[in-house]
């Protein structure tokens, strides 16, 4: 497992030089698996689940946060409950002469309310955007107005998401 060695604001990009391996014992791993399943678990319940004292558990969770293993606790909001029933992954390729504008593209696209996540890639595509929209018309408008209208964007490919199934803990 690797983590960022320096603290950054949520959503900031980290580079490979910010990464270092961390040694975790079995108790740390059990804590992480439990929090991955339920980040709202109380410290007392977590300590009982892992089999350690609450004060020890609190100290370990705080340490895991300080060293960057736990980056935050987040609400998993269902876009459909907000009227955004259509989700898609959009692959984006920039023009070869736009490579110097990557940071400005990221800043611009992250401001769009439809954008849930931005993945900066190596390979044929430069980015994958996870977006949520009301319907196909809303999605089409997003692509046309925010991507196709941008002269720095060479091309896009949109894939609709039928279902998002959360993966297992990375441990």
UniProtKB/TrEMBL annotation:
SMART domains: HTH_ASNC
GO MF annotations, alphabetized: sequence-specific DNA binding
InterPro entries cross-referenced by the UniProt entry: ArsR-like_HTH, AsnC-type_HTH_dom, Dimeric_a/b-barrel, Tscrpt_reg_AsnC-like, Tscrpt_reg_AsnC/Lrp_C, WH-like_DNA-bd_sf, WH_DNA-bd_sf
Keyword terms: DNA-binding, Transcription, Transcription regulation
GO cellular component, one term: cytosol
Any single Pfam family the record assigns to this protein: AsnC_trans_reg
GO biological process: response to amino acid
Gene3D superfamilies (alphabetical): 3.30.70.920, Winged helix-like DNA-binding domain superfamily/Winged helix DNA-binding domain
Name of this protein: AsnC family transcriptional regulator
Provenance organism: Mycolicibacterium grossiae
């Amino acid at each position: 497992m690797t983590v960022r060695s320096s603290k950054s604001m949520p959503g900031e990009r980290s580079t490979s030089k910010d990464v270092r391996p961390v040694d975790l014992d079995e108790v740390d791993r059990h804590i992480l698996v439990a929090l991955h399943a339920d980040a709202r678990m109380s410290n007392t319940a977590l300590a009982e689940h892992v089999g350690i004292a609450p004060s020890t558990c609190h100290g370990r969770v705080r340490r895991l946060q300080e060293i960057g293993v736990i980056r935050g606790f987040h609400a998993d909001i269902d876009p459909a409950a907000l009227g955004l029933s259509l989700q898609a992954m959009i692959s984006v390729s920039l023009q070869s002469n736009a490579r110097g504008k990557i940071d400005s593209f990221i800043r611009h696209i992250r401001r769009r309310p439809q954008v849930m996540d931005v993945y900066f890639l190596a390979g044929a595509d430069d980015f994958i955007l996870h977006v949520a929209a009301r319907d196909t018309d809303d999605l089409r408008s997003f692509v046309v107005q925010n991507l196709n209208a941008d002269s720095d964007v060479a091309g896009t490919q949109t894939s609709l998401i039928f279902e998002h199934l959360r993966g297992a803990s990375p441990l």
